[in-house]
Amino acid sequence: MKEHVRFLLSQQGPFAEKISGYQERESQMIMAEAVASAMENSSIELIEAGTGTGKTFAYLVPAMQFEGKTIIATGTRNLQDQLFLKDLPTVIRATGKTRKLALLKGRQNYLCLYRLESNLQSAHFVNKAIVEDIVKIREWSRKTTDGDLSQISFIQEDSAAIPFVTSTADNCLGSECSAYQDCFVAKARKHAMDSDIIVVNHHLLMADVALKRDGFGELLPKADAYIIDEAHQLPDIATMFFGQALSSRQLMELARDSEQAYRTEATDCPDLSEAAAQLEKASADLRIAMGEEVARDFWRLYRERAEIAEHFDQLLSALARLCDVLKEQAIRSRDLENLYERAEELHQKAGLFTEEDESEYVQWLEVYRKSFTLNATPLSIAQKFRQAMKGYKEAAWIMTSATLAVNEDFGFFERKLGLFDAQRMVLPSPFNYQEQALLYVPRYLKNPAASDYTQSFLAAMIPLMTIAKGRTFLLFTSHRALNEAAELLQSHHEFQLFVQGQASKAYLLEKFRKTPNSVLLGTFSFWEGVDVAGDALSLVAIDKLPFVSPGDPVNQARIDAMRREKRDAFGQFQLPDAIIALKQGAGRLIRNVTDRGVLVIGDPRIVGRQYGQKFMADLPPMIPTRNSALVEEFLSQL
């Protein structure tokens, strides 16, 4: 297969014949050969492919030629749609090879007919706006063939109605549901089972891996090859699925569904209504006791407070009482049985947060305006992931990204996932960065820890943004700096500002591309997965080196654990993590062979500290400069 995929992608092959302006890329053909070899030999292959390699076709072409079943996992639903609706059809048109394809999303993306109807019947639970959205969704439900909610344009993506018309793994009744024959999730999964190539996202794949590891069934069919794009995201997503979480939303949904079951199926059991109300009150009281919103903090610091401990005990008691009531009622219907199973599971989860041993897991919480989430996150998933991989030993695993290695060393990524027997390949970008871009580190910027650092950073940027006529990404390492910069730039009416949080990511990017003098301000969600090629973007500026926050409970616990083991937490965790993040941010600038621009790194530590050399060594080989006049001259010609 290696020789064939090379031919297909060569200048003599069908892509060159059928795609106008197609040019073969040696790095793309080398990657395609490596993917083909891994698929044939059922091996693990790690491939760092620089921007412009053409890695999507480099793995899709062998996947289409491979006779086994292939699952392709990508980072976002947007990338899923692009692969399924654009890239795979292009490969089919070029090669003439057809396979049975499936696009499979998580269940929260599909309409649940049972919950739609049951929640409409009990519409007194929700406000008028939500009911109106549910009614619109019911009208749409009569026309849709696949129930994919992403096709809906008449309600907001984050509409509060969505939880009322979708199922979760907790509340789904499975084959015993009265609407099972028409279930969109079941239909999508059946289609996937019968397909040769299935496109999923990382979350769905990791949910399946975690389920199979724990022996609780499966979400995806067993495949002969797994291709993970944007694989640098995999460790964090896997960590989430190997951990535990208890949210007030889960508790409130259980209380609401229990009250609904009382009204529709157990009207002779007032204890059920009382127990549901008790749980709802206990959850709300605990949130009030937690006080102000908190991004992330140690749960133990909250649990030690007498008021929190008292309300958490009341929550445990409320869950225990609801379990007792539902246990007696479970025999009456599958719905009540499901509620009992959910209550038991949440009671067990809540019990985890009474334990004080944090040698393997760190317990932390997030407090929002009206809700909270308790989390138990493993300090390491290497052993868990390696154990899970044993169930796939006859399958190929290809993991690829533009940022998998640190200075061409995959050790950081491999240690996270416990991968010790992988083949490795680094393919540099084919772009001529020496001609296309400058790397500018301004002089005289303040210490990044200074309170007025953002002001200092913008003072260096505004002249460059003016010369560039906007066309600028300002990427920040914190929301605080983002908001401060947005406020400071409000008086500069020559720029059209687009600020993360004002609208959806897709909307902001679309407006940025089309609007003259535009400047987009974003935090980490804009550091990756963003592709603005051409003249719309000429300047990318990063305020600070993206070190993880040592005050974050998960990071702090990992750093402390490494220090206890006499390991170098900075060199083995904080530094490589920041290098990979910086590579992602830097990758926003040059997206094709004709792009030109300037990358600005405001943080003086990149030239003033010894470790700065490691950052510089892993950035694209742009011409480095500290000469502002040279940068201004370069920008004026773009």
TrEMBL record:
Its EC number is 3.6.4.12. The keyword Membrane does not apply. It comes from the Bacteria. Residues 14-276 form the Helicase ATP-binding domain. Residues 326-356 form a coiled coil. Keywords: ATP-binding, Coiled coil, Helicase, Hydrolase, Nucleotide-binding. One of its GO terms (biological process) is DNA repair. Pfam families: Helicase_C_2. InterPro entries: ATP-dep_Helicase_C (IPR006555), DinG/Rad3-like (IPR045028), Helic_SF1/SF2_ATP-bd_DinG/Rad3 (IPR014013), P-loop_NTPase (IPR027417). One of its GO terms (molecular function) is nucleic acid binding. PANTHER family: DNA REPAIR DEAD HELICASE RAD3/XP-D SUBFAMILY MEMBER, REGULATOR OF TELOMERE ELONGATION HELICASE 1. Belongs to the helicase family. DinG subfamily. This is ATP-dependent DNA helicase. It comes from Pleionea litopenaei.
